[in-house]
Write a structure and sequence with these properties.
By secondary structure, this protein is α/β, with parallel strands linked by helices. Helices cover about 35% and strands about 20% of the residues. The two termini are about 25 Å apart. The model has no long low-confidence stretch (mean pLDDT about 95).
Length: about 450
C-alpha cells in the first residue's frame, strides 16, 4: 500500500479518506516529530474539512505534539506561515483542484518545501506498522488558534513586492480557500478588484475547483461585462493560478512561458525548473535570455528540489503552479499573480509576446483507470511504447517519448484515478496522430489487465 501520491495523501471521503484513517495518520505524523513539537494546520473550504481536521488533530495531540489551527486558509499562506512563525510542520487539509468529494493532507517543512519522499516514507512506515508514540497524559499536545496568520502573510508579501498597476482585476477563487482572502490582499495593495465566486463553498457550486478554459467561461463573461482587464483564477486551495483577459483564457504553457521569460529577464539565475508534463514553448521563451530548462518529476516538491539542485530562478508546472524563491520554495499563486501585474500595462502585452514564439499544438487527455491497476497498465505499455520509434524514451515519471517535432507522455496521475496522455507538436496532425497512439496503448493495456 502506498499512502502518499504526487501531492500528499488524497482520496474520496468515506472511501479512501475516513475519520479513523485520519486519526491514525495524525498519530503517524506526530510520532515522526520530536515530543512537544508545534505544527500548524489549515483547511480549504470542503465540507469534510472540519471532520477530518478533528480526527487528524486528535491523533497528533496523542503523540505529544501541539497543533495551532489557522482556520480556512490557502496553501501558499499555510506553507509560508510554517516558516514565518517557526512551526516544525505545516499541515494542509485539501484535495487541491479535485472535485468536492475528495480530500487529503499535504505536509510542509519550515523551509516551505513540502515533505520529501524520505519524510513521507517515514510517516507511511509508522502509519502501516502502527508504531505510534503514546504520550504520557502530562505531555499530551495542546490546541491553539491563530486568527492573524493572514495579516502576517499580507505584511510580508507587501514588503517583498511593491505593486504599481492601474489594471482592473477580477478575482475568482472558485469558492475555494482563497475566497475573501485574495480580494482582501489585492485591495490592501491598492489594486481595483472585482470579485466573483468569492464566497467559501465546499461544494464548489459556482464552478469546478479546477480552473480551466471550459470552467471559466462565466468568469470571462463577468470580466467583459465589468470592463475589467484581467482575471486571476485559483483552484480549491490556491496553489494553482490561471489567467484570462477580455479575449478569453490565457493558456497554461503560454502563461508559464511568459512569467518565466519575465523572471529570467530580471535575474542572474538562468535556469527554469519544471516537469515532464511541460511543453517546449517554455524552452523557446527563455532561450532568448540564454536560460535553460530542466525537467523532473511532477509535483511541487519535486520541482522545488530540482530548483535547489540547479539553483533555478523559478519553478513552474504546466497546470499553473509557480514557485518563486523570493517568496519561498512553495507554490505561491498570490505572489505570482502580483508579479505578473507588476510586469504588464495591459494583457495585450502577453498575447503580443506569445505571438513571437513558435506555434505549438498541445493536448491532454485523461483516461479513467483504477489506482490499483495503474502500475500494471504502465508495465503493459512499456514494451510497446518503443514501437513508435521515438528518438528518445525516458521513464523519469511515466513514459515520455521524444520525436523530432513532437513529444508524447503517458503518465498515471498521482492525485486522481486516471492516466494522462499528453502530446505537443509543431504539427497539428502529428499531435493528433501521436496522441491517438498513446490513448490506444492505454486503453488496450487496460483491457488486457482487466481480462
Amino acid at each position: 500500500m502506498s499512502l502518499f501520491g504526487t501531492s500528499g495523501v488524497r482520496g474520496i471521503v468515506g472511501q479512501d479518506i475516513t475519520p479513523s484513517m485520519l486519526l491514525s495518520l495524525g498519530k503517524a505524523i506526530g510520532s515522526a516529530l520530536p515530543l512537544q513539537s508545534d505544527v500548524c494546520m489549515a483547511t480549504d473550504t470542503r465540507l469534510s474539512g472540519d471532520m477530518l481536521k478533528s480526527s487528524l488533530t486528535a491523533g497528533i495531540l496523542s503523540t505529544g505534539v501541539n497543533v495551532t489551527h489557522l482556520g480556512t486558509a490557502p496553501t501558499p499562506l499555510l506553507a509560508y506561515i510554517t516558516r514565518a512563525l517557526g512551526f516544525q510542520t505545516g499541515i494542509m487539509i485539501t484535495a487541491s483542484h479535485n472535485p468536492p468529494q475528495f480530500n487529503g493532507v499535504k505536509l510542509w517543512n519550515p523551509s516551505t518545501i513540502g515533505y520529501s519522499p524520505q519524510q513521507e516514507k517515514t510517516v507511511e512506515t509508522i502509519f502501516l506498522q502502527k508504531t505510534f508514540r503514546e504520550a504520557h497524559w502530562k505531555q499530551l499536545g495542546h490546541i491553539y488558534t491563530n486568527a492573524t496568520a493572514s495579516e502576517t502573510y499580507f505584511k510580508d508579501i507587501s514588503n517583498k513586492i511593491d505593486v504599481k498597476t492601474d489594471l482592473r482585476v477580477v478575482i475568482d477563487p472558485g469558492n475555494g480557500a482563497a475566497s475573501h482572502i485574495a480580494s482582501r490582499l489585492f485591495r490592501k495593495l491598492g489594486i481595483e478588484v472585482f470579485p466573483i465566486n468569492d464566497e467559501p463553498d465546499g461544494r464548489f457550486s459556482s464552478r469546478p475547483s479546477e480552473p480551466r478554459e471550459d470552467t471559466l467561461q462565466g468568469t470571462i463573461s463577468y470580466l467583459q461585462d465589468e470592463g475589467a482587464d484581467i482575471a486571476v483564477c485559483f483552484d480549491g486551495d490556491a496553489d494553482r493560478v490561471v489567467f484570462c483577459d477580455r479575449k478569453g483564457f490565457l493558456g497554461y504553457n503560454e502563461m508559464i512561458s511568459f512569467l518565466s521569460h519575465k523572471v529570467v529577464e530580471a535575474v542572474s539565475g538562468k535556469v527554469v525548473a519544471t516537469t515532464v508534463e511541460t511543453g517546449r514553448l517554455l524552452d523557446h521563451a527563455v532561450a532568448h535570455h540564454g536560460a535553460s530548462v530542466v525537467r523532473g518529476r511532477v509535483g511541487d516538491v519535486a520541482v522545488a528540489h530540482l530548483m535547489q539542485q540547479h539553483s533555478a530562478c523559478i519553478g513552474v508546472e504546466q497546470v499553473g503552479v509557480y514557485i518563486m524563491p523570493h517568496m519561498g520554495m512553495h507554490p505561491d499563486s498570490f505572489y505570482a499573480a502580483l508579479f505578473l501585474l507588476n510586469t504588464i500595462d495591459t494583457p495585450e502585452q502577453i498575447r503580443d509576446y506569445i505571438k513571437t514564439l513558435p506555434r505549438l499544438y498541445f493536448s491532454k487527455k485523461s483516461i479513467p483507470c483504477p489506482n490499483e491497476l495503474k502500475e500494471k497498465v504502465m508495465k503493459t505499455i512499456q514494451p510497446t511504447a518503443g514501437e513508435l520509434q521515438p528518438e528518445e524514451l525516458t521513464m523519469l515519471d511515466g513514459i515520455r517519448l521524444e520525436f523530432s517535432d513532437s513529444w508524447l507522455l503517458i503518465r498515471p496521475s498521482g492525485t486522481e484515478p486516471i492516466i494522462r496522455v499528453i502530446c505537443e507538436s509543431d504539427s497539428h496532425s502529428h499531435m493528433n496522430q501521436y496522441q491517438q497512439e498513446g490513448v490506444a496503448m492505454v486503453t488496450d493495456a487496460l483491457k488486457e489487465v482487466e481480462s
